[in-house]
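User: Design a sequence. Structure:
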């Protein structure tokens, strides 16, 4: 607004220390509005420039009319002559104080007031006037001592009151000039006697002199001698009559006034320098001032901790440091502080004018400057001692006046320290406000935006200048109705706080979600002055929530619903079915031999297969049906509104047909099958859990029936599922009670029938007469994760048995031990095998390790390295069940393999000139070309053995020679075979 009048310099106005305000008359001078003010006005009158510009004076200062300043404005506006107004006291509900105004009219018609806050000066004047009045009354009412000096006879009369002024009775002092001289202060004698000689030489009507006389107590008190000369005819002074007026109090008052002035100057200097120095430096300045005010040579300051038991040395005065050579800990307990810290315990100032007599309580170490006398003053704030300032070694005893001086100074110091700390906190808060990633908006109660931080602009797109003075509704998105905002404000007004999720609009028009916290800020009277809103953009969080929601309900690999979502959909389907009296079907589908694909070609290939099958399944189903993946290779199909079981059977067969279609991956043609179990609501279960459990049982029936088929649930399947659970529990017990033991099947030379080795196979020796075969418990062990524990038990016991056999006649004998995929992946496999062989003193060339093809296909480079390490130890490495996996010749040539073991499925189906015999022949030829030996497993007939002999096969094993037998029986087989040889 002030741009319409350029007659005053803005920059100068800002730099002036006294208050300057510019006003524009309105309504022909009936009122005046603020055009500009400087920072001194803001500080003195507790207003903010942006809040008063453009507002009437009578609105900002309601008492201005009664104050009389507007009348001065009007006169100056009309006459053009400047006026000085005041000092006059101004008062309204907000501020009170004395002001001295100098009012001028600017050429443009504005009025400017240059004023000073003279409240303190008026207070000082009033105090001085009161003091002078008291002094006058005291003087008039006091009885002064009378004296009469007869110069001709050189005699002096001293009245009893005169003597009483010095504390004596009349008879205790002689009426003699020497009496007066003897009591005169040594420092005053020369001056006073010289002035007397000057007066006698040139007499005036009245002689006056001020000096100090020694009181009976030993202290000196100030007297004013006032006398009138008696002249003789020669105009020579022959006699002087006068009085002694006790002016000691006045002198003390003058001294106090000087000290007060000194202290005020010190406080002003302290306040002036405080903003530009550190806290320690301002303390140092205060110590110098305290030492100067009390004429002390020692000064120090300590902070007192909140526990009121420990203190922290801040610094000493510079003069103290010149004479102090001791090294001090800055923190120490109050109990070690000495007598000077009594002010903390008593919470009152302490004076010790005989400090040297306080042995044992001095509280300073060797090397510290010696204290003769001492003064310490505490500062108490919020009912706690915050700091202690001390001064020492004044040449004269410390008095209460010294206490007052130091107390007032240190009170100012504490105020400045608090302000400095508060300012620092504000700076830190401002820095935090600007650096925080959350947006901050501050509004008044209108509400209008009065401040925002950097993050506000980054989130909303609005710059600060674009929104200052605006209602926060500038961000309103339109997504929320009036009830939403009404409830927000109801809670904010009643509780002083609101938080929640809200949608707002950026400057670009984009609507976004934010998490908003609003708090009401109140003044000391409990009135709300501002609102602070802190919010963050939660768009990314919302997206994450959606992703988490999808992750929680959908399979990440196939994108199909997972078990959680499936159960939810089943329950909803059952609710609808109960109302409509319809049936619901669940198809539990488990892929056959999927583990072979995973183990042989790796998990990435297995994952691709699952995704492809999921897509194929979805194409075969209706839109309203649900297919979910609930495990590795397990799927569940939910079909609602079932008409007949044949309809469900058709769907199951369609899914099986889809799986039969050949799948080509990275040069491999994969053929997988599936087993499907079906349960129907309500016949086979009333809830999701029972229906899935029963469909699962039916699926196992399909697997046991030859796989790649489907079966409907029957009650008998529940018994079989329970049998599986009991079997798993019993298997845990069997492992703990050593019921899992190795049986040994001989490995025989095809050419001469000699036993050259044996394969260790697991058997379960329980309460039954015959050991439980692997086909009964190994599938359960694999499903439950016990297979590795079984493998470890067999490995350990087989080593013990091999050591006990002692085979001098079977130097080439090797014991074949199976390594599971999980065992092979173990980081410590090589060290573990080496340790066990060493433990049982078994030569490494006695051990043959059998690995499945799937092991070779997993993490190929690591597998090569590990197999090479085992081979380099001297172990024979064999590939078991060769021909059932998906390994390629290229992979096979990279491994240090010694033997191939042809899977029993090829051997058992060997007939004359059939394709299986061709396969066996091909494998045999390939192995020999790669310098590998060949073992055929599952040989049960003489014909099979004859064909293997014709092919040149190296070794065989199977029922034709011997079933797997316990260790003792195997040892007898060895002996019999050796005798036969």
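Assistant: Done.
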């Amino acid at each position: 607004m002030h741009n319409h009048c350029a007659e005053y310099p803005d920059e100068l106005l800002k730099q002036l220390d006294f208050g300057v305000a510019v006003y524009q008359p309105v309504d022909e001078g009936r009122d005046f509005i603020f055009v500009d003010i400087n920072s001194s006005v803001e500080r003195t009158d507790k207003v903010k420039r942006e809040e008063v510009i453009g507002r009437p004076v009578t609105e900002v200062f309601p008492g201005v009319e009664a104050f009389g300043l507007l009348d001065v404005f009007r006169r100056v506006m009309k006459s053009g002559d400047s006026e000085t107004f005041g000092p006059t006291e101004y008062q309204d509900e907000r501020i009170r104080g004395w002001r001295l105004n100098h009012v001028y009219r600017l050429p443009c018609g504005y009025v400017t007031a240059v004023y000073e806050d003279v409240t303190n000066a008026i207070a000082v004047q009033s105090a001085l006037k009161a003091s002078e009045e008291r002094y006058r009354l005291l003087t008039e009412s006091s009885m002064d001592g009378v004296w009469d000096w007869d110069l001709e006879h050189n005699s002096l009369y001293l009245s009893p009151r005169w003597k009483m002024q010095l504390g004596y009775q009349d008879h205790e002092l002689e009426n003699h000039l020497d009496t007066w001289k003897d009591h005169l202060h040594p420092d005053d004698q020369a001056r006073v006697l010289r002035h007397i000689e000057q007066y006698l030489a040139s007499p005036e009507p009245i002689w006056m002199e001020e000096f100090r006389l020694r009181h009976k107590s030993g202290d000196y008190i100030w007297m004013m001698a006032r006398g009138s000369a008696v002249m003789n005819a020669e105009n020579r002074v022959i006699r002087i009559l006068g009085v002694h007026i006790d002016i000691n109090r006045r002198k003390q008052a003058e001294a106090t006034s000087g000290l007060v002035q000194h202290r005020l100057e010190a406080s002003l200097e302290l306040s002036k320098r405080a903003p530009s120095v550190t806290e320690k430096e301002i303390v140092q300045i205060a110590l110098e001032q305290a030492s100067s005010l009390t004429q002390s040579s020692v000064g120090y300051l300590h902070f007192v901790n909140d526990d009121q038991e420990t203190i922290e040395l801040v610094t000493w005065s510079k003069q103290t440091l010149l004479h102090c050579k001791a090294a001090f800990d800055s923190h120490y307990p109050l109990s070690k502080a000495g007598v000077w810290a009594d002010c903390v315990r008593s919470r009152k100032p302490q004076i010790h004018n005989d400090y040297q007599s306080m042995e044992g309580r001095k509280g300073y170490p060797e090397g510290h400057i010696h204290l003769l006398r001492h003064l310490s003053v505490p500062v108490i704030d919020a009912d706690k001692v915050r700091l202690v300032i001390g001064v020492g070694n004044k040449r004269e005893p410390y008095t209460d006046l010294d206490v007052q001086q130091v107390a007032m100074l240190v009170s100012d110091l504490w105020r400045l320290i608090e302000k400095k700390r508060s300012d620092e906190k504000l700076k830190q808060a401002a820095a935090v406000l600007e650096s925080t990633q959350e947006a901050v908006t501050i509004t008044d109660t209108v509400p209008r935006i009065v401040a925002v931080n950097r993050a506000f602009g980054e989130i909303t797109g609005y710059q600060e200048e674009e929104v200052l003075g605006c209602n926060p509704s500038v961000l309103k998105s339109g997504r929320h109705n009036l009830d939403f905002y009404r409830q927000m404000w109801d809670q904010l007004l009643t509780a002083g706080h609101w938080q929640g999720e809200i949608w707002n609009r950026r400057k670009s028009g984009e609507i976004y979600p934010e998490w908003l916290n609003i708090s009401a800020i109140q003044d000391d009277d409990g009135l709300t002055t501002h609102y602070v809103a802190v919010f963050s953009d939660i768009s990314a969080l919302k997206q994450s929530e959606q992703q988490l929601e999808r992750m929680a309900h959908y399979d990440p690999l196939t994108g199909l619903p997972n078990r959680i979502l499936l159960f939810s959909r089943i329950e909803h389907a059952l609710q609808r079915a109960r109302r409509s009296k319809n049936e619901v079907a669940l198809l539990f589908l488990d892929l056959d031999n999927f583990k072979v694909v995973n183990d042989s070609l790796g998990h990435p290939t297995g994952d691709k297969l699952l995704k492809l099958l999921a897509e194929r399944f979805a194409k075969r189903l209706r839109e309203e049906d649900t297919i979910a993946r609930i495990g590795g290779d397990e799927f569940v199909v939910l079909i609602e509104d079932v008409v007949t079981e044949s309809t469900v059977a058709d769907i199951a067969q369609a899914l099986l047909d889809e799986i039969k279609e050949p799948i080509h991956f990275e040069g491999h043609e994969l053929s997988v099958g599936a087993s499907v179990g079906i349960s129907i609501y309500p016949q086979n279960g009333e809830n999701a859990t029972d229906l899935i459990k029963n469909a699962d049982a039916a699926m196992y029936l399909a697997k046991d029936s030859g796989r790649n088929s489907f079966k409907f649930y029957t009650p008998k399947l529940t018994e079989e599922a329970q049998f599986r659970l009991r079997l798993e529990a019993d298997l845990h017990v069997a492992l703990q009670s050593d019921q899992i033991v190795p049986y040994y099947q001989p490995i025989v030379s095809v050419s001469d029938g000699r036993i050259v080795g044996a394969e260790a196979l697991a058997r379960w020796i329980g309460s039954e007469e015959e050991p439980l075969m692997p086909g009964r418990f190994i599938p359960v062990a694999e499903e439950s994760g016990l297979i590795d524990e079984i493998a470890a038990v067999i490995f350990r016991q087989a080593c013990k048995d091999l050591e006990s056999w002692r085979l001098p006649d079977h130097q080439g004998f090797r014991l074949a031990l199976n390594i599971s995929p999980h065992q092979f992946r173990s980081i410590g496999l090589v060290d573990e095998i080496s340790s066990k062989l060493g433990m049982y003193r078994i030569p490494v060339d006695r051990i043959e390790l059998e690995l499945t093809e799937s092991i070779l296909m997993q993490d190929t480079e690591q597998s090569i390295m590990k197999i090479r390490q085992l081979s380099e130890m001297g172990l024979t490495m064999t590939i078991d069940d060769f021909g059932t996996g998906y390994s390629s010749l290229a992979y096979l040539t990279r491994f240090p393999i010694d033997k191939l073991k042809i899977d029993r499925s090829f051997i058992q189906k060997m007939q004359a000139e059939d394709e299986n015999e061709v396969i066996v022949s091909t494998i045999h030829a390939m192995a020999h070309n790669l310098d590998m030996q060949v073992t055929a497993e599952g040989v049960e007939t003489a014909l099979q053995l004859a064909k293997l002999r014709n092919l040149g096969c190296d070794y065989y094993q199977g029922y034709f020679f011997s079933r797997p037998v316990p260790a003792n029986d195997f040892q007898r087989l060895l002996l019999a075979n050796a005798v036969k040889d």
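The two ends are 124 Å apart (CA to CA). Residues 436-543 form a domain with the Beta-Lactamase fold (CATH 3.30.450.20).
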